[in-house]
Amino acid sequence: MTQRRLAVWGDPIAHSKSPQLHAAAYAALGLDWEYTRRRVDEAAFIEALETLDDSWRGLSLTMPLKEKAHRAARTHDRCADLTGAVNTLLLTGGISGFNTDVGGIVDALGEQGLLDIDRVRILGAGATASSALVACVEAGARSIDVRARRPERAAALVALGHRLGVTISASPFDADLPDVGLTVATLPGGTALGPATSARLSTSGGVLFDVAYSPWPSALASAWSDGRAVSGEGMLLRQAVRQVRIFLHGDQSVPLPSEEAVVAAMKAVL
To answer: How do residues 95-116 score in pLDDT, each as one tens digit?
Structure first.
């Protein structure tokens, strides 16, 4: 049986642009693959995964399924191992877990000329924050300031930062803010921090790279009066390119055939 079925799962899922991006890539590559979306919550994930038959090639995972997907995978790539989060499952020959968010962030930062910024702030302490931390280190950061409503939730992030050899601390939003060159916001869509907090973050935060992309501008980007704000649409595109590489080659580092043309087709649907 040909493994040609793929999908994106998460909860919520209606907002996801993954079906359009993947459909454009498969058409450009001449692949007769089907990519759909399905609302799946944490409680239903394992049962849903076990129902997939041999026609399934892979899955993209959004929140809140990235940690569940990590536990379900039999093997992991380096970024999945570091973060404990999987956003891509390859189902050919077993269940292999990958994290393309890290590379997607690095690629998007590079396109915006935001590499080699020494001091970075990360807002949030969830699974995407872990990916952002690894990405920032790979992009050249050496000092990371994590901000979270409950800093104790960032203990794993701090440990990961130490493992990666960077200076890292976690504090609440209302603590003193050192100046940084880049702020990476990984807050859930629709999060509003309040005018005073947003203004303080903007004043000391350099360029804002917000993983949010719909709706845009985000509440934080709208309040980012003292600097440039970049949406997460570039990350969305670049992590999807890496997912297509995995679904085709089993390796996110191997370029697609005529990749520039494929990326152009994907950009056109955003």
So the answer is: 999 999 999 999 999 999 999 9
Q: Degrees (nearest 5) of the Cα angle 181, 183, 189?
A: 165
pLDDT digits (tens, 9 = 90+) for 166-196: 999 999 999 999 999 999 999 876 677 888 9
Tens of pLDDT, residues 226-263: 789 999 999 999 999 999 999 999 999 999 999 999 99
Element spanning 64, H or E: none
Regarding pTM above 0.85, the answer is yes
DSSP-assigned letter for residue 116: S
Residue 66 is among the residues annotated as catalytic for this protein = yes
Full DSSP string of 124-178: --SHHHHHHHHHHHHTT--EEEEE-SSGGGGHHHHHHHHHTT-EEEEE-TTS---
Q: Is 1 helix (H, G, I), strand (E, B) or coil?
A: coil
Q: What tokens were used for 28?
A: 């450009």
Residue from 17, 66, 68, 267 carrying the catalytic annotation: 66
Sign (positive or negative) of CA dihedral 70, 73, 74, 78: negative
